[in-house]
Amino acid sequence: MKLYDLTLSGNCYKVRLLAALIGLPLELVPVDFLAGDHKRAPVIELNPLGQLPALEDGAVVLRDSQAILVYLARKHGGEAWLPTEPEPLARVMQWLSTAANEVQHGPADARLVDKFGLPLDKPSTLRTSDFILPLLDRHLATRDWLELGRPTIADIAVFPYVALAPEGGVSLDGYAHINRWIARIKALPGYVAMPGTE
Ligand SMILES: N[C@@H](CCC(=O)N[C@@H](CS)C(=O)NCC(=O)O)C(=O)O
């Protein structure tokens, strides 16, 4: 199974992290982002959006980190990481949507501005961060994991760009429940880090 990968990408890291936690070997194919290789073959043929990550599992080709988490969790994680019953499934999925929306447009985009110089609207990324991080902290005040009382792909999807928030000038000081949740994720057997989450 090949993951077209970028070390500094939190979206790629979601996939590497889940694979490590479930003991699934991945063949990492590093893509030279600065050279624009994500906009050229073979990546553009796997993902017409020209984005990473992309996954190739035999004839199955997938784009989008959330979709790849769903695929790996259902194919290799049994019921543990993504259950099939309607309510718990939906509970996990709502956080995948939050990861792709508020977390992406808040702390993740703030990091794209500060760390990589992308010309995004920094005040907007800070406003979105100020909306989602307090909400997440309140949610975690009464539970150890985002849903179902155990780690699921909800945690894996939301974790990277929350943990990387300081790289976008978004402080996690004062978010005690988020910080304890980050520590719990880092203590999971098989956990792997990425630059910026150590
Ligand atoms: N929704 C996608 C977003 C993927 C994404 O934006 N990847 C970045 C790297 S972290 C990328 O390839 N950006 C290049 C571009 O958008 O042109 C996911 O979750 O995988």
Give a short summary of the structure:
This protein has seven helices and four strands. By secondary structure, it is an alpha+beta fold. Helix 1 (10-22) crosses helix 6 (153-163).
Overall description:
It is built from seven helices and four strands, in the order βαβαββααααα. With 198 residues, the chain is α+β, with helices and mostly antiparallel strands. The chain has two domains: 2-76, Glutaredoxin (3-Layer(aba) Sandwich), CATH 3.40.30; 86-186, Glutathione S-transferase Yfyf (Class Pi), Chain A, domain 2 (Up-down Bundle). It has a four-stranded mixed sheet, with helices on one face. Helix 1 crosses helix 6 (153-163), helix 4 (86-116) runs parallel beside helix 6 (153-163) and helix 5 packs across helix 7 (176-186). It is globular, with a radius of gyration of 16 Å. The site of glutathione (GSH) has 12 residues, from helix 3.
Please tally the helical runs, counting DSSP H or I stretches of 4 or more residues: 7
Oligomer: single chain
Low-confidence stretches: none
CATH class descriptor name of the largest domain: Mainly Alpha
Name the shape in a single word.
globular
The structure class reads: alpha+beta
CATH topology of the largest domain: Glutathione S-transferase Yfyf (Class Pi), Chain A, domain 2
| Largest sheet entry | 4 strands, mixed
Overall number of domains: 2
DSSP strand content: 5-15%
Order of helices and strands: EHEHEEHHHHH
Give the arrangement of secondary structure elements.
Blueprint: E1 2-5, H1 10-22, E2 27-30, H2 43-46, E3 54-57, E4 60-63, H3 65-76, H4 86-116, H5 122-140, H6 153-163, H7 176-186
Parallel strand pairs: 1-2
Antiparallel strand pairs: 1-3, 3-4
Helix pairs in contact: 1-3, 1-6, 4-5, 4-6, 5-7
Bound molecules: glutathione (GSH).
